[in-house]
């Protein structure tokens, strides 16, 4: 039998193994299931069971340190950064390596959770890959960095060859070919990200006859992400692209190919009604942007005659 000092030492050892409750900053706020707090309670229950039975083997299960072939919503997996391209002053396209001939396994529009650590503080944020759903050997993510953002500080520290940890997939929008007559995509800034794989899935499928109207909202012309990709997509018979620039005021300063499809100011009720009215088939809307943008667009779509089951908010 253990004496009192041995019992105290054993109890201290178990307490050191107890899972640490996440801080509010560790939740990405995207409604993921399982959330980081769900995972904490799962680990806590495992710890309590192991402690009660005095069996530490029940706590086994190490985090993978190599590029996986399959994602997990519960476990963070390591991916190597193979390239970092700076698209604008504050936005990067980051490519992560997968094993050769391996696909990430996300459906178009689903997102992942990135884990970062700055000054000992763990943080988590949601990002949507912009690479094609069937891309092999890699996936790409669009990340905007903010001056005071903790995750931004972490991302700015990256270099090619570094490793980042992701878990997923998450997201409740599942696109099926020809499911909708027309998709009306309303995106603000990096809210363009979930639209990209959905759009490419449509144009890659010759049998998908879905019309697409994509509206990208940016501050300036220079700030438009993925110009080449969007220009290529707009050449398809079933795709239209429009841009709303909040800090531009002269069409003459824009390339000719953009002048007829660009508006200034902000995307508001009048333009939403015009867009819905110009759709070639009854539209289903996809909306992604800031919380304020998403809330405003939902109101505008309702006022334009779309029911709540006729749009999806990322």
Please give a structural write-up.
The protein is α/β, with parallel strands linked by helices. The strands form two sheets. The protein has a six-stranded antiparallel β-sheet, with helices on one face. Residues 61-69 have low confidence and may be disordered. The protein contains eight helices and twelve strands. The protein starts with a helix and ends with a strand. The protein is elongated and about 85 Å long.
Detail the topology: elements first, then pairings.
Layout: H1 4-16, H2 36-53, E1 77-86, E2 91-97, E3 111-118, E4 121-127, E5 138-144, H3 150-156, E6 163-170, E7 182-188, H4 195-204, E8 211-218, H5 227-233, E9 239-245, H6 256-259, E10 262-264, H7 269-278, E11 283-288, H8 291-303, E12 311-313
Parallel strand pairs: 7-8, 7-11, 8-9, 9-10, 11-12
Antiparallel strand pairs: 1-2, 1-6, 2-5, 3-4, 3-6
Overall shape: it is: elongated
Structural class: alpha/beta
Radius of gyration: 23 Å
- Tell how many strands the DSSP assignment holds: 12
Rounded mean pLDDT is 87
User: What share of the residues lie within helices?
Assistant: 25-40%
Low-confidence stretches: 61-69
User: What is the N-to-C succession of helices and strands?
Assistant: HHEEEEEHEEHEHEHEHEHE
């Amino acid at each position: 039998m253990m004496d009192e000092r041995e019992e105290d030492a054993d109890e201290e050892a178990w307490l050191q193994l107890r899972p640490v409750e996440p801080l509010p900053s560790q939740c990405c706020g995207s409604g993921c299931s399982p959330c980081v707090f769900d995972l904490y309670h799962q680990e806590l229950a495992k710890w309590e069971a192991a402690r009660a039975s005095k069996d530490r083997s029940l706590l086994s299960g190490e985090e993978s340190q190599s590029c996986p072939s399959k994602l997990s919503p519960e476990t963070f997996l390591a991916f190597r950064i193979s390239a970092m391209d700076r698209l604008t002053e504050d936005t990067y396209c980051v490519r992560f390596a997968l094993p050769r001939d391996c696909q990430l396994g996300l459906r178009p529009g689903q997102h992942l959770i990135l884990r970062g650590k700055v000054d000992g503080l763990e943080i988590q944020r949601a990002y949507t890959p912009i690479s094609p759903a069937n891309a092999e050997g890699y996936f790409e993510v669009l990340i905007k960095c903010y001056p005071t953002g903790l995750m931004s500080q972490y991302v700015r520290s990256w270099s090619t060859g570094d490793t980042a940890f992701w878990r997923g997939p998450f997201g409740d929008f599942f696109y099926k070919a020809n499911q909708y007559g027309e998709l009306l995509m309303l995106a603000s800034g990096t809210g363009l990200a979930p639209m990209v794989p959905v759009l490419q899935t449509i144009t890659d499928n010759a049998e998908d006859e879905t019309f697409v109207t994509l509206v990208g909202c940016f501050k300036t012309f220079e700030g438009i992400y993925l110009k080449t990709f969007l220009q290529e997509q707009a050449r398809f018979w079933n795709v239209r692209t429009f841009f709303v620039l909040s800090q531009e005021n002269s069409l003459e300063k824009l390339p000719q190919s953009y002048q007829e499809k660009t508006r200034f100011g902000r995307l508001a009720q009048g333009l939403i009604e015009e867009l819905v009215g110009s759709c070639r088939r009854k539209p289903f809307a996809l909306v992604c942007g800031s919380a304020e943008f998403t809330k405003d667009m939902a109101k505008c779509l309702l006022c334009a005659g779309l029911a709540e089951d006729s749009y999806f908010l990322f």
